[in-house]
């Protein structure tokens, strides 16, 4: 690629960074402190804003560049892949969004732990949520590094490394300074940019074919060299039965995993009510569905206009298909239009990665600070805030005794309790900021270590872990009266451990030329995605743990969960 | 703690048209014959158990489940059928329908269409059949737990 492309793309990207940093500074002025603010952004976003933010969190660069590339190279199979990403939202809408909004405060663990003995459940759910986030995060970081190499021609190792470090540093700035409020606005800006860019390119492709979708498909099939097979499934996920089961496994993980992704669930707490959470999901489904419909046009457009051979020549995985398409639609490599469109696509892809990474970091820091740190610490020492709560309770008790000034003292006592709780929660937000920095450092380190690896499977794995560990625990605790603490813990570990172990034993890690460790062979599991096995295992483990536990299920606790989840009583 | 999201007509009309105490009179307290709060100062757990047993809540839950259970069964089996057919019977999916459009393309676009339709249907069902009753129950329950908290401390 020429210098013009690079300069313009870097310029546009700098503008995006400047705008987002300005947003971060602007929204975080005078708003330091409370966990309510840090994790949930004040809970007053409108459904439309949150819908755009959800779509922004969900439409990663992998979807934008990856799915278009898949369609450009393999035709229909790319579309097959994108359907799972959309249908998954029905699970979120029907079973999760409203109920989670009603029952929880900040994280998934809030919902599950409310009915159970808090500490073990919080640690289990916190661990699996953090695992999902880190897997997803590393995939995005490495993607960012690769993207630089692809789009800007920065083939050098140093350019990739500095991109990973730069993206990591920016995301830490966004999250630690701005919390959920800044992250949400960044997602909204990114969503608008991404959708705007996609709409513009789609219109250009359709104009090129005079609005004739049929002719677009025929031209794509003709240029692909596969003929009609290009428009039918089987080019990528066909072949032997292992490949087919692998795709079914991936499809299952995609559909069930979305409802267990911590950074998606935490978005529902940024709106005031369950009704608003529902309406934000409706917005998100519209935006995401529209986006995937447009990627179909862009993918087939790239095949028809650029041609799969050129795409494959630029990048074997097809990740540059949209950029090449933009170059062509703008008028070719040497034209101004081509340069501008190419730069726009590159900048949008960066913005996308940056925003997604910030969203995931925020939810990972919530899992660490709100679930893991709080539970692990509580056992040993009573932190300042808890002492204050205790003091407040003593005062409240004292107020009860004093008959004459009872009322006043009672009120004072309650104020003290509230103040103590605020202190507790303020301390937690500080911990969450530190956690965000820590997670940023870990993600940068892993991103640098893994930058030469093919990490597409990490996203599939993140979805598989979310579907096998988080979803069973969440659904059981919302809908099953007899679910117990042991069941919840077993459901999480019974999904998390098989998913991770199966991946370690899979061809992704060893035993093949494309594996992480091509030299050794400890491959015992044939599929790349563990979902087909680990998702049922998670559900079975939760059931088994429940029926074997001696704990008598607490009907009153379940009544509370059920009433709260369906009515919103007592929701924050 | 509740703050309405301003733009929803239902929320406001629900509050003005049907004052929350209507539901108490009609919904519950009749099912098990015990007098509400007063004498024995029930705990918050009792309140939730009682709300759970109330006819009004059971109606909300029944409406929710009646929509969600068949809908989930429907779209999950439709999606799994789609994925399994696409991977195991590509020949069937490749059968042309009109021009370049084949069965696979129709099925794929059909997935998008059913997703949009089910989203619309769910949102409509929740808005018309569930929201108002759920909101009433919310105020009732919060009122009762507030009373118990005040009485107990």
TrEMBL record, chain A:
It is found in: Cell membrane. It comes from the Bacteria. It is a multi-pass membrane protein. One of its GO terms (cellular component) is plasma membrane. One of its GO terms (molecular function) is symporter activity. It comes from Streptomyces curacoi. This is Cation acetate symporter. InterPro entries: Na/Glc_symporter_sf, Na/solute_symporter, Sodium:Solute_Symporter.
TrEMBL record, chain B:
The keyword Membrane applies. Pfam families: DUF485. It comes from the Bacteria. InterPro entries: DUF485. The chain crosses the membrane at residues 67-85, 97-123. Keywords: Membrane, Transmembrane, Transmembrane helix. This is DUF485 domain-containing protein. It comes from Streptomyces curacoi.
């Amino acid at each position: 690629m020429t210098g013009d492309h690079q300069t313009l793309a870097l310029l546009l990207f700098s503008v995006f960074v400047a705008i987002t940093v300005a947003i971060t500074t602007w929204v975080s002025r005078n708003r330091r402190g409370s966990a309510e603010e840090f994790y949930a952004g004040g809970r007053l976003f409108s459904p439309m804003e949150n819908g755009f933010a959800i779509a922004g969190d969900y439409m990663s660069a992998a979807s934008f560049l990856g799915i278009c590339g898949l369609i450009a190279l393999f035709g229909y199979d790319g579309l097959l892949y994108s359907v799972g990403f959309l249908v998954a939202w029905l699970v979120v809408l029907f079973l999760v969004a409203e109920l989670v909004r009603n029952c929880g405060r900040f994280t998934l663990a809030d919902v599950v732990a409310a009915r159970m003995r808090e500490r073990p459940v919080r640690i289990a759910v916190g661990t699996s949520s953090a695992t999902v986030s880190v897997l997803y995060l590393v995939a995005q970081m490495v993607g960012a590094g690769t993207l630089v190499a692809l789009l800007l021609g920065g083939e050098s190792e140093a350019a990739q490394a500095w991109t990973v470090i730069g993206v990591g540093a920016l995301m830490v700035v966004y999250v630690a300074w701005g919390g959920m409020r800044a992250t949400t606005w960044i997602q909204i800006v990114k969503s608008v940019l991404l959708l705007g860019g996609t709409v513009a390119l789609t219109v250009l492709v359709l104009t090129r074919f005079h609005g004739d979708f049929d002719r677009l498909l025929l031209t794509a099939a003709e240029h692909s060299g596969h003929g009609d097979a290009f428009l039918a499934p089987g080019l990528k996920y066909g072949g032997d039965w292992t490949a087919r089961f692998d795709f079914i496994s991936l499809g299952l993980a995609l559909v069930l995993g979305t409802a267990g992704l911590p950074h998606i669930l935490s978005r529902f707490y940024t709106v005031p009510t369950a009704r608003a959470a529902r309406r934000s999901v409706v917005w998100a489904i519209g935006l995401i569905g529209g986006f995937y419909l447009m990627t179909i046009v862009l993918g087939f457009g790239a095949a028809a206009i650029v041609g799969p051979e050129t795409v494959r020549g630029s990048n074997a995985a097809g990740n540059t298909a949209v950029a090449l398409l933009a170059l062509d639609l703008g008028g070719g490599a040497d034209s101004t239009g081509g340069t501008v469109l190419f730069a726009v696509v590159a900048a949008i892809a960066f913005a996308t990665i940056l925003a997604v990474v910030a969203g995931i970091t925020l939810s990972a820091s919530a899992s660490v600070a709100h679930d893991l740190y709080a539970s692990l610490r509580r056992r040993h020492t009573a932190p300042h805030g808890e002492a204050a709560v205790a003091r407040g309770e003593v005062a409240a008790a004292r107020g009860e005794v004093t008959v004459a000034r009872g009322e006043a003292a009672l009120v004072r006592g309650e104020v003290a309790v509230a103040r103590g709780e605020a202190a507790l929660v303020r301390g937690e937000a500080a911990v969450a900021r530190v956690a965000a920095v820590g997670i940023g450092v870990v993600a940068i380190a892993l991103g640098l270590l893994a930058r030469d690896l093919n990490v597409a499977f990490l996203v599939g794995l993140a979805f598989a872990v979310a579907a096998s560990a988080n979803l069973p625990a969440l659904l059981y605790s919302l809908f099953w009266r007899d679910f117990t603490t042991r069941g919840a813990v077993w459901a999480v570990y019974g999904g998390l451990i098989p998913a991770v172990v199966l991946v370690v034993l899979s061809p992704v890690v060893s035993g093949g030329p494309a594996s992480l460790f091509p030299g050794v062979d400890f491959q015992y599991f044939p599929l790349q995605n563990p979902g087909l096995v680990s998702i049922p295992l998670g559900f079975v483990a939760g059931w088994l743990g429940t029926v074997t536990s001696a704990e008598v299920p607490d009907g009153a606790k379940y009544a509370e969960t059920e009433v709260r989840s369906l009515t919103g009583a007592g929701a924050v | 703690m509740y703050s309405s999201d301003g733009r929803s007509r239902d929320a406001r009309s629900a509050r003005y048209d049907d004052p929350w105490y209507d539901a108490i009179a009609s919904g519950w307290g009749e099912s098990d014959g015990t007098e509400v709060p007063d004498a024995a100062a029930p705990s918050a757990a009792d309140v939730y158990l009682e709300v759970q047993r109330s006819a009004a809540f059971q109606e909300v839950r029944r409406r929710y489940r009646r929509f969600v259970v068949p809908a989930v069964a429907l779209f999950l089996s439709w999606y799994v059928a789609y994925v399994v057919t696409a991977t195991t019977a590509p020949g069937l999916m490749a059968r042309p329908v009109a021009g370049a459009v084949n069965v696979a393309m129709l099925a794929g676009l059909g997935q998008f269409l059913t997703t949009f339709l089910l989203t619309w249907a769910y949102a409509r069902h929740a808005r018309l059949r569930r929201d108002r009753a759920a909101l009433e129950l919310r105020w009732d329950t919060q009122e009762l737990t507030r009373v118990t908290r005040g009485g107990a401390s």
